[in-house]
Amino acid sequence: MEKEKAKGFINEFKAFIMRGNVLDMAVGIVIGGAFTAIVTALVQNIIMPIVGFATGGIDFTHWTFPPNAAEGSSAITYGVFIQAVVTFLIIAFVVFLIVKAVNKAMPKEKEEEAPAGPTEAELLAEIRDLLKEKNAG
Questions:
Q1: What does the H/E/C string look like for 30-80?
Q2: What is the biggest distance separating any 2 CA atoms in the chain, rounded to whole angstroms?
Q3: Can you list the residues of the chain whose pLDDT is less than 50?
Q4: Same domain, yes or no, for 29 and 66?
Q5: Distance (Å, rounded) from C-alpha 25 to C-alpha 95?
Q6: Are 59 and 114 in contact (CB under 8 A)?
Q7: Which domain holds residue 50?
Q8: Are 14 and 66 contacting, i.e. CB atoms less than 8 angstroms apart?
Q9: Same domain, 79 and 94
């Protein structure tokens, strides 16, 4: 009895794992992880040095409250948060540019034109004719 339950559970699990959407999600997660590494390397090694040069090397990570608090004390390190927000905005902008470039490079699908239907005037004339037939009959 226990073997049958275990076998049924295993078969149910296999059916769950082999569904297309689970496999697609797994592939998306793996590709997303690889893409994250690429974008992070781009931002940290190319874009952030340019931003640092343009801003005179401002480093938010050392900003604390109270100012000049000793490391390891109970200071609020709000600069780390500011740096994370700035990094997020830069990464989001880079991803936006990449997606925009990929969308531009991809061939556009031809939109099928919907078959031309009757015009408004034709529909009104048809309704008028149907009402005439109904009233005449």
A1: HHHHHHHHHHHHHHHHHHHHHHHHHCCCCCHHHCCECCCCCCCCCCECHHH
A2: 98
A3: none
A4: no
A5: 20
A6: no
A7: 1-58
A8: no
A9: yes
Q: Which tokens hold the place of 25?
A: 């999600």
Count of positions (residues) in the chain: 137
- Domain membership of residue 12 (yes or no) is yes
Q: Which residues are CB-neighbours of 86 under 8 A, at least 6 positions away? A: 60
73 and 95 part of one domain: yes
C-alpha pair distances (Å), 6 with each of 11, 37, 102, 129: 9, 40, 47, 71
Asked if residue 127 belongs to a domain, the reply is: no
> Could you give the CA distance from residue 96 to residue 87 in angstroms, rounded to a whole number?
14
Distances, alpha carbon 83 to alpha carbons 48, 52, 62, 77, 90, in Å: 11, 12, 10, 11, 11
Alpha-carbon distance of 9 to 98, in angstroms, equals 43
78, 65 Cβ separation under 8 angstroms: yes
Is the residue at 46 inside a domain? yes
121 occurs within a structural domain:
no
Please report where in the chains the tokens 């297309």 appear, as a residue: 20
pLDDT per residue as tens digits for the range 58-98 = 877 788 888 776 666 788 888 889 888 888 888 888 889 88
Q: What is the pTM of this model?
A: 0.51
